[in-house]
What we know:
Layout: H1 11-36, H2 43-50, H3 54-58, H4 64-87, H5 94-109, H6 118-126, H7 132-157, H8 167-188, H9 192-207
Helix pairs in contact: 1-2, 1-4, 1-6, 4-5, 4-7, 5-7, 5-8, 6-7, 7-8, 8-9
Amino acid sequence: MVTTSSGPPTADGRRLRGERSRRTVLDEAVQVASVEGLDALSLARLADAVGASKSGVAGLFASRESLQLATVARARDVFVVDVLQRGIDAPRGLPRLWSTYCAWVDHSRRRVFRGGCFFRTVASEYDARPGTLRDTIRDALDSWSEHIQTLTTDAVERGDLDAGADAELLAFQLSAAYAYANDTALLHDDDAAYDRALEAARATLRGAGADPAALTTG
Length: 218
């Protein structure tokens, strides 16, 4: 507890403690939701998991939906740090595209979220259920799809891929290989699915004119 020299907690101290508590709850929530979906989240369950009172956890979120939305936002933040920021360190063009793709596959392989790809779990849960949660999940997925397509387009424009290569189709094919590997690895406990996804991505990019030597990592 943060206190002033005279004793009682300061407003800043209470806010920091509340932020830490909220982060602790959300870090557990993203793990639960990655396996069981957002509908599995409950204040009582999360309170028990983090060793807090239900009323204390309830005080951090205005409603169950706000908890679910905050969980999606927290998962997105984790994903950005673990995948996007790792990939963006590579030079632009094919190196950045490939580095990002390898980081993406590795993200699922390492089980950063216990259920593999958090967004595949929650998207399948909400893809046919209109509402704020669906919109928020869709926005996160659309943002990532646009990023992959931007990287692919940049690789084409910089001459790392054939001038006539369809960047949108390539991005779709790379994403499909990732998605199938994630699902297969989880369903069959088959880590080799990730290696097959990388090889499928290599074949796709080589077919679009990529230098095989640029695709050796991963």
